[in-house]
Specification:
alpha+beta, OB fold (Dihydrolipoamide Acetyltransferase, E2P), 2 domains, five-stranded mixed β-barrel, five-stranded mixed beta barrel, 17% helix, disordered N terminus
């Protein structure tokens, strides 16, 4: 996934030397783990900055976006929320040099090579990573390993690991792994491991979604026949679907990384 980088009109002129690509476009493609937005009001949101130094009420970091390198000075205060080491009430002492951080704050000043930001939120992505979300069909349960598999829309299979801290809900009621029915729809929230598995913190299962699957398929077939018979109306419907997808890609693009930190196109 690419993170779109939009530079607000108020601050763009001072940042062209830092991010020359912003001069020719209002978006900048980066890897899925890095990105920056600056709103016209000067609110800065960054993901994937590497910490180079940590001092009293200050964090120095660098953000690499392709050929562009942005140095950032994060000034913190008692009002800055720091998320690290499994705690949402951590301090800057819980952040170490070499860690990757995401943050939100107000742009204080900028030069040809450095942004100074008054941070309102800082999250250490190294020891408190963003939750990973997966959804699909529950295809099997392994009680011995305390795991289950999820098949996604692209037919990929993901192994989900559970433990004593995992919250499992079936049709709105808390339950155990052994009670989960195969072929149910499932949403998993957790941490992705290096081997591709997910250690779940929350599992939401809807067994009712599997019931009536054949009926929904029949309805879809009927709708398809209706559209085919409509001729031009069917084509018109396809055009609307394409238009909606484009609008979603432009206006709705973004990634909710944590409360108050949103990277992507603003509405």
């Amino acid at each position: 996934m690419n993170i779109r980088t939009k530079i607000g009109s108020i601050t763009a002129a001072t940042l062209l030397a830092v991010m020359p690509l912003a001069a020719s476009a209002n978006t900048l493609s980066a890897s899925g783990s890095t990105g920056i937005t600056i709103s016209p009001s000067g609110i800065v949101r960054v993901i994937g900055a590497d910490v180079t130094a940590v001092g009293t009420n200050v964090i120095d970091a660098v953000l690499n976006l392709g050929n562009a390198v942005i140095n950032v000075v994060l000034n913190t205060s008692g009002n800055t929320q720091v998320v690290a080491n499994g705690s949402k009430t951590a301090t800057t002492s819980d952040i170490a040099v070499g860690d990757s951080v995401a943050f939100k704050g107000t742009l204080s000043s900028s030069s040809s090579s450095t942004l100074t930001v008054a941070a309102s939120k800082v999250r250490d992505m190294t020891n408190f990573p963003f939750p990973h979300i997966a959804a699909g069909t529950l295809t099997s349960v392994n009680l011995t390993n305390g795991s289950f598999t999820v098949s996604g829309k692209d037919n990929t299979s993901t192994t989900v690991l559970t433990n004593a801290s995992t919250s499992i809900t079936l049709n709105g009621t808390t339950t155990a792994l052994a009670a989960l029915p195969v072929n149910s729809k499932v949403v998993v929230i957790g941490t992705q491991n290096t081997d591709g598995t997910i250690t779940a913190t929350k599992v939401l299962v809807n067994s009712h979604a599997a019931i009536g699957k054949d009926n929904r398929q029949h309805d879809n077939d009927t709708d398809k026949n209706d559209n085919d018979n409509d001729g031009d109306n069917g084509n018109h419907g396809t055009g609307n679907a394409t238009s909606t997808a484009n609008r979603h890609d432009g206006k709705g693009f973004g990634l909710n990384l944590f409360r108050g930190l949103h990277l992507g196109e603003d509405n």
